[in-house]
Design brief:
CRISPR-associated endonuclease Cas1; Four Helix Bundle (Hemerythrin (Met), subunit A); 2 domains; two-stranded antiparallel ribbon; antiviral defense; 10 helices; nuclease; hydrolase; 311 residues
Length: 311
């Protein structure tokens, strides 16, 4: 893997993106950023910008994929260098035991979220859970092994996930306006940061998924238990789901507890994060999103696809 900047993100509207054989240049208003292509592993573009065709050619020639997202962080496409597009495991993916794979994703993600909630609550005198919430989560965890249909699995997964995000709001500063995970357009900085962090994690995971020979669109929890809809990249989402808490949520909630001032974001039709806040957030994400751990998770998933066992 290349050392240096793990990814470069262009977010919002109006940037001009160009590249020569050795340098990527991004102009945003009066500011300008330049990166040696040898230091970049991935370019993420979210929102509306101008991207030169020559830039795409130089990026792919340097083995750098380009991922595209809408302004809310939803993935819409990817340009991959030669060799990234082959999916030799596609046939095997179509024959995986979907229920078993979906169950594995749900169990892993629920354990990860429960560990984090218990960690957050351990230092609070007033506790973190409202009456009955911990019992509901524990019962849901025990109930999983008895669920035999995909809709039942999806119901428990969505219930516990929604509860998790609502419980997180109790440790964020109230003035940030975060109450629960919402759909875009986001009206608070915490949801906006979640969206950006998940976009970065998605793009990072997608590179490993495609490199491992997996078809990013064939999943088990996403795409099967949870219908496709907007859930493009179902395989990518399945693999990243248990990693969202340690790699993104911790960073977001740490910053939300430390304090995000009103001058660091602006709310109009949606929440806009300041350049200074985004710079610090991206710095922390770069430390938190472990590419080696992602590669291991993808490799384990690919091995499970081949063997037919649970990932």
């Amino acid at each position: 893997m290349k050392s240096g900047v793990p990814w470069v993100t262009v977010w919002g509207y109006g940037a001009d993106i160009r590249a020569t054989r050795g340098t990527l240049t991004i102009r945003e208003g009066t500011s300008r950023r330049s990166y040696p292509l040898s230091s970049i592993r991935h370019l993420l573009i979210a929102g509306g910008h101008t991207l030169e065709t020559a830039a795409v050619a130089h990026l792919t020639a340097n083995n750098i994929p380009v991922s595209f997202f809408d302004v809310h962080g939803e993935p819409v496409g990817m340009v991959c260098p030669p060799g990234y597009t082959a999916c030799p495991l596609r046939s095997a993916q179509k024959n995986i035991p979907v229920h078993r794979f979906a169950m594995s994703v749900i169990v892993s993600s629920l354990k990860s979220r429960m560990r984090y909630l218990n960690e957050l609550g351990s230092g609070r005198e007033d506790g973190l859970y409202y009456k009955g919430e911990l019992e509901i989560l524990a019962d849901a965890s025990r109930e999983l092994e008895f669920l035999i249909t995909l809709p039942e699995l999806a119901r428990v997964f969505l219930l516990t996930r929604n509860m998790y995000y609502e419980i997180l709001s109790r440790v964020a500063a109230p003035e940030l306006g975060y109450r629960r995970r919402k759909k875009p357009p986001y009206q608070d900085p915490v949801n906006a940061m979640f969206a950006h962090g998940y976009a970065v994690l998605y793009a990072s995971t997608a590179v490993s998924v495609t490199g491992a020979g997996l078809d990013p669109e064939i999943g088990s929890l996403y795409g099967s238990a949870i219908p496709p809809g907007m859930n493009r990249g179902a395989c990518v989402r399945d693999i990243m789901e248990p990693l969202m808490t340690p790699m993104v949520d911790r960073v977001v909630m740490d910053m939300a507890q430390e304090g995000i001032t009103a001058g660091q974001y602006e709310i109009s039709s949606r929440c806009l994060l300041s350049e200074k806040l985004m710079k610090e957030y991206n710095r922390r994400l770069a430390e938190s999103i472990d590419s080696d751990a992602l590669d291991r998770a993808v490799a384990e998933y690919a091995d499970a696809v081949v063997s037919g066992s649970s990932p």
